[in-house]
Amino acid sequence: MDVDGEAKKVIWSLQNNKRTEAERNVFQPTGKKPMNKTVVYVLSALGITLLMSFALSQFATQSTDFCFLIESYCFNSTENPLAFTFYIFMNLWILILGIGMAYLIGKKLGDKFKI
């Protein structure tokens, strides 16, 4: 392809009133504050984790005995599938929070002891 160096370039600008008044006003701010999506993100993360824990509990082939915090509060996974799902859900979030805290502590220590 042969490009002529003297070819006229197309310049996009608002000069010479190329746009109508209605076209210029399309992008005016509405005055509404943007929606805070933090709650949506947190609820979707909790929902996805709950669905994952339910799927993981369905893949379990063996019957498992598990306890919540104390030895006298134990369940069987085949008799109480919802409790087992909640148990997996809690363990997943303990892991996620542990990894997040380790990252934050490592970041603080890395900023403090720069090599």
List the helices and strands in order.
HHEEH
Strand order of the largest sheet: 1-2
Report the count of strand segments.
2
Shape by Cα distribution: elongated
What is the CA-CA span between the terminal residues? 53 Å
Low-confidence stretches: none
Largest sheet: 2 strands, antiparallel
Percent of residues in beta strands = 5-15%
Radius of gyration: 29 Å
Structural class: mainly alpha
Number of helices: 3
The helix content, as a percent range, equals 40-55%
- Give the overall pLDDT as a whole number: 84
Protein model, in words:
It is a single chain. This protein is mostly helical and 115 residues long. It is built from 3 helices and 2 strands. 50% of the residues lie in helices and 5% in strands. Strands 1-2 form a two-stranded antiparallel sheet.
Offer a few descriptive terms.
115 residues; elongated; 50% helix; two-stranded antiparallel sheet; single chain; mainly alpha
